[in-house]
Amino acid sequence: MTEIAPEVLGADVVKRSTRLADGRELIYYDDPDTTLGAERAIDARTLDPRPATATMRLDVLTGDWISVAAARQNRAFLPPAELDPLAPQTPTNPSEIPSLYDVAVFENKSPSFGPALTTAHGDAPEASNPPRGLDDLAALGLGRTRTSVGRCEVVCFSPEHSGSFGTLSTTRARTVIEAWADRTAALSALPGVEQVFPFENRGEAIGVTLPHPHGQIYAYPYITPRTTRLLDSIDRTAPDLFQRILDFERGSERVILQGEHWTAFVPFAARWPLEVHLLPHRHVADFTETTDAERDELAPLYLRLLRGIDALYDTPTPYIAAWHQAPVGAGRDTVRLHLELTSPRRAADKLKYLAGSEAAMGAWIGDVPPETSAARLREAVEGVSL
């Protein structure tokens, strides 16, 4: 055991940074009312060398960069509880986290991006063929490749084997939000990172391979295709597009719940059977710009939303909870932090699959009118208690 020096963040969350046996970063975020002490176990495992950094290939037809990360083929797939790689280590379970924890964040063992970013610790090799800026990445040409610099992190919401963000206490949810803000700041400062994306995949229907309550954070070496289209839409309309959207939706019947700082609604042109957007009432580019008051309100409001979505059916609802943030160096004054939560579940026993029109052409056909979806969600959320 070793004592790790604390750093106090907002809401009295305590941060303790350390390293895993192969040099990957591990950060503990302790709840303000934690029962954990300052000492944490040392990761004494003997680990294989970290995998080679993936390579990106340019799709010249679309301009998209595709990261080819073969090491991900070896990641854990639905392990039993006694071999949960995100649970605290035991004598019989050499998991990724040495000690009991409240919230823990660590570098992914099989990342889609990284670890080819040099740091003060010198634990990652320099990229052999890194991107040379956004202009370089925007250039089209056959056979173009670049090293997939960046970072992929796992955010463990709880030491429990099963659950999701929606099963957390309000205090624990607030700790996770503080971790998102702290990691967004740290990852945005890494060389070569252009955008930071926190998200949670929930449910086997989404493709989740670990039932442990967790999310992820990707730090990309480019501005993602979705955000590139968003920036174009802002250029073609107005710099205050997000405020206009918020005002438009708050005047509609699609609002699900709202507070002093946040509003959740089903968007006017929803694609998925279940789709909810959550926006702050003022412009903030990412989690680092939110105030303590905004984070304090977000924790219970977000929990109510997720529990309402689960209350629609007798079994938990699969979803992707995607926190869109402004790029590191572009659109900071126009792209607003917001959640886009989507689920393919269109009935208790039916899922929407992306077939020819959606998957091949990107031409969506909605199954449920957004107003109908909003009415069902609003009723479900109203019955939720924290």
UniProtKB/TrEMBL annotation:
Reactions the enzyme catalyzes: alpha-D-galactose 1-phosphate + UDP-alpha-D-glucose = alpha-D-glucose 1-phosphate + UDP-alpha-D-galactose
Residues in Galactose-1-phosphate uridyl transferase C-terminal domain copies: 251-379
Cofactor list: Zn(2+)
EC numbers: 2.7.7.12
Keyword Ribonucleoprotein applies: no
A Pfam family per the record: GalP_UDP_tr_C
Galactose-1-phosphate uridyl transferase N-terminal domain span: 83-223
Protein family per UniProt: Belongs to the galactose-1-phosphate uridylyltransferase type 1 family.
Source taxon at top rank: Bacteria
UniProt organism field: Microbacterium alkaliflavum
Signal peptide: none
Name recorded for this polypeptide: Galactose-1-phosphate uridylyltransferase
Keyword Ribonucleoprotein tagged: no
Keywords linked to the UniProt accession: Carbohydrate metabolism, Galactose metabolism, Metal-binding, Nucleotidyltransferase, Transferase, Zinc
Gene Ontology terms, MF aspect: UDP-glucose:hexose-1-phosphate uridylyltransferase activity
Enzyme class: transferase
Pathway: Carbohydrate metabolism; galactose metabolism
Gene: galT
